[in-house]
Amino acid sequence: xxxxxxxxxxxxxxxxxxxxxxxxxxxxxxxxxxxxxxxxxxxxxxxxxxxxxxx
Length: 55
What we know:
Elements: H1 6-16, H2 32-47
């Protein structure tokens, strides 16, 4: 994408945004966001668990 003119790259970035963040969650020192995601996923699973799984 470096070979594209600046105006085209800016327009693509405006439309699609960044494809990858500069820092990923696992690179952060704070482990809590992953814990919150796990808790939210577990809550979703419990709320959406099919009845036949309770047997």
